[in-house]
Amino acid sequence: MTDRVRLLAAQAGLLGLSVTFLIVRDRTGLAQVVVKDPDVHDKVRFVQNSIGAVPGPLDCFLVHRGLRTLHLRMAAHTENARVVSAWLEGIEGVYEVRWPGISGMVSFRHPDALKIVSATKLFSLAESLGGVESLIEIPQAMTHGSVEGSAAAVPADLVRLSCGVEAPEDLVEDLAQALGVE
């Protein structure tokens, strides 16, 4: 368990972590649970043991296989997001480009968000953090509708990208054609 996971568990008391996207590289739904309270731990452990909620051999194989290439995939995600976010900074109509610097996630705002997500060819329109493929979405319409009208609402012109491991110049070219930029 990493120091970050320990810290989150200490603050939250109960923490569920998915290893689906980054570790296993697909959507198999594997997870781990970290519990702070010993009594809650015993209850979770009892349920886990009684219903057989333990990873099988294939699940363990998928995690092991994914860990062996994680550093390569994360480097590609991060570099692609760096290239895409830097390119977006100079595009007219694009504003509030956000990239945390350590992942493949990029967001930006544009008045024609719906047109952009409908026009990409390499980025797939999907509600996900993605695997090795690049994805694009409008969170307000696709993932955050339940918080509309609250302080957690997101703007309708927000576009979120999950940059995959394709060639960065191909990602930029796809966004350029979707934005109508030469």
Describe the fold and architecture.
The protein is of the alpha+beta class and 182 residues long. The chain folds into two domains: 3-54, no CATH class; 69-179, Alpha-Beta Complex (Aspartate Aminotransferase, domain 1). Helices cover 47% and strands 16% of the residues. The protein contains seven helices and seven strands; from the N terminus they run αβαβααββαββαβα. Strands 3-4-7-6-5 form a five-stranded mixed β-sheet. α4 (57-89) packs across α7 and α5 (113-119) crosses α7 (168-179). The termini are far apart. The model has no long low-confidence stretch (mean pLDDT 84).
Key terms for this structure?
7 helices, Aspartate Aminotransferase, domain 1, two-stranded antiparallel sheet, 47% helix, 182 residues, five-stranded mixed β-sheet, 2 domains
Topology:
Elements: H1 3-12, E1 14-18, H2 20-24, E2 31-35, H3 38-51, H4 57-89, E3 95-98, E4 105-109, H5 113-119, E5 124-125, E6 135-137, H6 139-142, E7 158-162, H7 168-179
Helix pairs in contact: 4-7, 5-7
Name of the CATH first level of the largest domain? Alpha Beta
CATH H-tier superfamily of the largest domain? Aspartate Aminotransferase, domain 1
Question: Unreliable stretches, pLDDT < 50, 5 or more residues?
Answer: none
Secondary-structure element order, as H and E?
HEHEHHEEHEEHEH
How large is the share of residues in beta strands? 15-25%
How many discrete structural domains?
Answer: 2
CATH fold name of the largest domain: Aspartate Aminotransferase, domain 1
Q: How is the quaternary structure best described?
A: single chain
Q: What is the makeup of the main sheet? A: 5 strands, mixed
Task: Give me the secondary-structure category.
Answer: alpha+beta
CATH-scheme architecture of the largest domain: Alpha-Beta Complex
Strand order of the largest sheet: 3-4-7-6-5
Average pLDDT rating: 84
Distance between the ends: 47 Å
Extended strand count = 7
- The global form is globular
Helix content: 40-55%
